[in-house]
Amino acid sequence: MYHGNPVLEYRLLKGKEIEALYFYENIEIEQIIARRECEFFVKQGITYKQTSSALEGSLFIIYVEEYEKGEILNVDQASSHSLKLEIREYAPAQDHPILKVEYFQSHLDVFCVIGSVYTYIEDVEWERDSAEIDEDRRTYSLYVTKVTDNLSQKGVYHEKN
Q1: 94 Cβ partners below 8 Å, 6+ apart?
Q2: pTM over 0.90
Q3: CB within 8 A of 62, min separation 6: which ones?
Q4: Which of 61, 102, 111, 124 is the most buried (most CB within 10 A)?
Q5: What is the pLDDT of residues 73-82, one digit of tens each?
Q6: What values do phi and psi take at 158, rounded to 5?
Q7: Contact criterion met (CB below 8 Å) for 141 and 38
Q8: Are 125 and 147 contacting, i.e. CB atoms less than 8 angstroms apart?
Q9: How far from the centroid of its chain's Cα atoms is residue 47's Cα?
Q10: H/E element, 32
Q11: Residue 123: which region, alpha, beta or left (left: phi > 0; alpha: psi -120 to 50)?
């Protein structure tokens, strides 16, 4: 059961070995919740894939394995005072085109979007594939695939985003 000041630790799985990777003290529980919702974590140009998570007292643990190495990309300066969320079409061959960019003031607000199965953008329904926290760019990304478009013509109403 969770109690006390939360601490987050990423642990790297290397075969049968487990190695402490990154450690975060003084972190808000809302940020931990949003990070646990992300299947991917990027830091120092390396993308990690989450395999599981655990809670030991007030220590939240996210277990990851190395997924791929890349280069460190530029930070969007507009995200320095807010939390940036890119909603991207899951299309690896097209470098995952950005559908929409939003800025939030809390990790809980980000969680509300990345934790949803369906997202609606300009009369199109998108289904969640995965989410990522990229510390290098200070950006969350939500990867989605198109389900259907022209919802209003089909008699389905969704509030415009």
Answers
A1: none
A2: no
A3: 8, 9, 10, 11, 35, 36, 41, 50, 53
A4: 111
A5: 777 666 667 8
A6: -135, 140
A7: no
A8: yes
A9: 12
A10: helix 29-36
A11: left
Residue with tokens 């929409």: 100
Compute φ and ψ for 123, nearest 5 degrees: 70, 20
Q: What six digits make up the tokens of 17? A: 């070995």
Segment 102-112 mean pLDDT: 96
Alpha carbon of residue 79 to chain centroid:
15
N residues, the chain: 161
> Which structure tokens are listed for 2?
């969770």
CA angle 28, 30, 35 (to 5 degrees): 100
**What whole-number distance in Å separates Cα of residue 88 and Cα of residue 71?**
19
